[in-house]
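User: Before I run my own analysis I want an independent prediction to cross-check against. Here's the chain; please return only the structure tokens and, at the end, one sentence I can use as a sanity check.
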Amino acid sequence: MRTGFVTSIAILALCTFAALRPPMPRRSSPSNVWFWLGWFVNEQPFVGLAVLALSTYQTLATDVGGPLWWLAAALTAAVACGMAALAVRTRSARGVLEAALADVPGLRVPRRPLPLLRVLLPLLVPRRGVRRLRNRRYGRARSQALDVYVPRERPHGAPVLLYFHGGGFTTGSKLIGGLPLLYRLAADGWVCASANYRLRTPYPNSLADARAAVAWLRDHADELGADPERLVVAGGSAGAHLAATVALTDGAVSAAIGFYGYYGEVGGGRSGGPATPHTHVHAAAPPFLLVHGSLDTLVLAADARAFTAALARTSAQPVVLAELPGTQHNFDVLPSLRLHAISDAVEAFARWATDR
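Assistant: Structure tokens:
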């Protein structure tokens, strides 16, 4: 049996196991090895199957029928079955999302077809019909910049969605996370933006940047063809923390959307003020949609449940948590079957919130 085959099948088997059933940590943390091993194949099982086929073809095409061939074939089949199970599991997201949103009055989640090419070539984020306005400055610091995604034909009174990236307040970029969703919404007539903010700084600075980005979009709404009164904030991980806090402290935000969000304390309470959205929960909070993975090994689903429960006890508006089976962190980075279902739900929720 070839050394290259053994190495390849061992790596792919480990990644598949990490995606199917990763050992869950006791508490949330910025990073762990199980996330990095399992994330890609969990989100892109079809690409994983293609890599598996390319890695094993030469071995399986020679010495057919021998004992080592049968061993190689069995190992390949086992890994392929694991990846196929991952592909099937992605389909469960839609039902969970629809059930979670079923109690929101007047909201229906459409089912849009997903082009097969989008599944097979996930690195190709669709850009047709969308213009990207790069590095619009909302402050003097280098990191205080955002990219705006607008329809090629200038809209009039379009709703706005502003996205904040994740990265544990230490790393990340407006070019990572949320882009498939932003391009899709912009193609459907939204004005969308993804903002950088100051990192490795006291939390109030990052929060001030998030608020400044919101203010910039409102100030420039006319030139973008947007309606400043129909603004949704969203984010992933640390960005969801910022989006939630902004939504709870800015009375004009229409709704908030959090992906795999961290909503706990930042900086151990030494950041110069309340450093968790839990502190700002109140009855007049806008509608919230929180989407989290049951197998998130970076931010545990229990943390999202705790924030949802605290908010739902107080808020007069809908608070929805969709906990997706078999889903890891960073599920909105690349187009996928799972993200397609999430995008359907997010667009329906955001339109409901801004059209009321």
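Sanity check: DSSP finds twelve helices and eight strands in the chain.
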